[in-house]
Amino acid sequence: MKILVTAGPTREPIDPVRYLSNRSSGKMGYALAGAAAHEGHQILLISGPTSLDIPAGVDFLPVETGLEMFEAVQRHIGRMDAAIFAAAVADYRPAHPATGKIKKSSAPLSLDLVPNPDILGSCRSVFGFTGTLVGFAAETSDVLDHARGKLIAKGCDLLVANDVSRPGIGFESDRNEVHLVFPDRIETLPEDDKTSLALEIIHQVEKLHAH
Ligand code: CTP
After folding, report:
1. Known catalytic residue at 22
2. How far apart, in whole angstroms, are the C-alpha atoms of residue 198 and residue 179?
3. Is the CB of 136 under 6 A from ligand 1?
4. Number of domains within the chain
């Protein structure tokens, strides 16, 4: 299969030296890309900035901002059999990034933010993607309810949900516990390292694609 994977955080510039971002390490997305390549699939990994090594055997497309990730996905998704959205795209970006470094003053400073496009949410409606679509949901409460809402709203075949409020798993960790939310059922993969979870998720994607 040809599989597109998004991973990592995005950086939304405030001025030439500052940005808005989040705590995503990219580990889950890179583990998925690596596991899928290991299984013999052709992978395009579109990634925001991380400190990780590029997994062996994947095509790599680095991006910085949510808009750049949107454009990269739009350009490549048409030829994919499946797409897995593990990136933590910033929901908002500064409306008018300053061209020069913002100087400090004693006055309070407000930033105007505008919403970034929802890349996963554009796959069916804007990009016309008909392949297997997998989203992620990072939640801090009502994990399964929110995940089911995203599965339906974004037209996914599978939504991988995790509780990012739990210490020791999820963001920045090598371990995670995830719930696989399908349209007709939920399966929980108990806490494990991200490499093992990634392989299990890739097997589920293979099954979905075969249907
Ligand atoms: N996602 C995306 N583009 C965005 C925001 C999110 O592609 N601009 C994708 C993520 O990669 C993930 C899924 O959408 O697969 C859910 O992301 P999440 O941040 O949990 O959900 P949001 O839709 O942003 O909802 P909220 O932040 O309100 O929980």
Report:
1. yes
2. 13
3. yes
4. 1
